[in-house]
Amino acid sequence: MCAMTAFAIPTEEIIFEKDGLKYQTWSLTDGVVSLIGHNLQKNKWNEEFEIPGHVTDESGNEYEVIHIGTHALAGLYIRHLTVPPTIQSIDSEAFSWGRILHLTLKPGNLRIIESESLSYVYSCETMTVLEIPEGVCAIASFGLYNSELYGTLVLPSTLKTIAPRAFIGCGFIGRVVVKAIEPPFMTDAAFGLNGYPQSSPDLSIVPIGVDNIVLAVPKGCVEKYREASGWSRFANIEEMTTEEAAGIVGIPTDYPSPSIEASGGR
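^ that's the sequence the OP posted. Answer follows.
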């Protein structure tokens, strides 16, 4: 946790830019910043893009990047985006309306995937990977709301709870890899059907649309998941591969041309 400055007097927050990324300091907390935006080209693919864990302003002051704000990286096309272990929280739609083929959140300070933290992450119709890092213990309702994965979702061994509607509207998942030996608590409503009417009087009873999803679990845990609440709805449960158990998930190499129209024009 960040230590608050003793008897600090509020100062004006400072916004500065470094390598095309915009940051904002915190008035009551020394040495930390939020990533709040960017000036990068929105319709051009970036190969490897890593958000820095530490950044220096024009005066040579160094800060730790602990937070990613709403729409901070909106509209970018990134083959492999890596989020540093210093990040403690991610606001809604932080990566929205772009194209991300492999999103890796490094294990560190992140404990909860908050509501809409990973919402509206579009990927084009190709194989993609989303890795939730070790250390995360809960995914809140609407955590991945309306994201298109078209590939593999990797959940950590530390995960304990998945809230109802955590994945509602999150379509096109092909494979879910769960590293937890004990099945995380999950109701039948965690995976909402893609495009399900949001005006429903009771979204908490939406059934899981998982008939075509493969659930991969640790060796010797298949029966546990077949009997566990929520997970028992998966028709296809198998042991994860040796590579998946070792934390090796391939990064897509084949990806389409960027299209501003495809990203909603944002």
